[in-house]
Each structure stands twice: as structure tokens, then as C-alpha cells.
Amino acid sequence: MFRFRLEPVLKFRRYRRDIVRALLAGVIEDARKVEDGLSVLSQDRSESVGRLRDMSAGGRFDVDQAASLRYYCSQLSAQIMANRRQKELVENQLRQVQAALVLADREVKTLEKLKERQRAEFDKRSQRIDDRVATDQWNGVAATGSTSTGVTADSLRLGR
């Protein structure tokens, strides 16, 4: 029976890859939230600037309301700048997590290929042993007329 000696390592690397995938999903969600927040802030600032223009275009002008609106626009601009910095950080984090996922995938695939290769070698070796046992048994039957050669496939596999 085939047993891959590095199976615990493969399981660990699959587990680590799954964690990196979950982390990537979280970072993508964070990027979406930051982008949505930036969009809302930009739209709110554009509307506020538009109201400020409309106020100055009319005949009557409320200085206190205009000052208040200008202050609000400046606060929105500061939030937009902070959001853009946050967006850059999240995009950097996204690149790092994507690179980690590529590495984790590569590690898992390498071990899976090794497992497949060792499995194929094991099957090939088992087939050769079975063929040799069958040949030995056939030769024994033909020579002596008996089937008891004392050699079995299991004893050859186990090196006995």
C-alpha cells in the first residue's frame, strides 16, 4: 500500500494556502470598501462644491453658510486624501497577499507532483514485483509441477 511520507507537510501547506486565500478575500473586501468610501466622499465633495458655486451665483449671499460649506469641503478633501493613502496601503497589501498565494500554490503543486511521481513509481515497482512473482511461480510449476515457491509479492515488496 502506497504511503506518501510527506503527507503531513502537504496537508500543512494546503492549510496555509487556504489561510492565504481567506486573507486575500479579506483584503479584496477591504479594497472594495475603501474604493466605495472614496467614491462616496468624492461625490459628496462635488455636490458641496456645486452648492457653494450656486450660492455665490445668486443675488443673496449668506457668508456664514458659505464659510460653513467651505469648511465642510476642506474636511471632505482631507478625508479623501486619507482614503487615497488607505487605498494605496490596501493595494500594496493586496499585491503582497497575491504573491504569497502564488508561492503557497507553487509549494502545494510541487508536493502534489512529487506525490504523483512517487505513486507512479510505487505502482510500477509493484507491477514488476507481481510480474516477477507470477513468472517465478510459472517457472516453478513448469519445472516441478508445484506452486509452492515460497516467494510472494508481499515478501518481495517488504524486502524479505
Question: Could you please describe the fold and organization of this structure?
Answer:
The structure is a single chain. The chain has 160 residues and is mainly α. The protein has a domain of 106 residues: Helix Hairpins. 86% of the residues lie in helices and 0% in strands. It contains three helices and no strands. Helix 1 runs antiparallel to helix 2. The longest helix has 82 residues. It starts with 6 loop residues before the first helix and ends with a helix. The mean pLDDT is 88. It is a peripheral membrane protein. Keywords: Bacterial flagellum biogenesis, Bacterial flagellum protein export, Cell membrane, Cell projection, Chemotaxis, Cilium, Coiled coil, Flagellum, Membrane, Protein transport, Transport. Belongs to the FliJ family. InterPro entries: Flag_assembly_chemotaxis_eff (IPR053716), Flagell_FliJ (IPR012823). It holds the Pfam family FliJ.
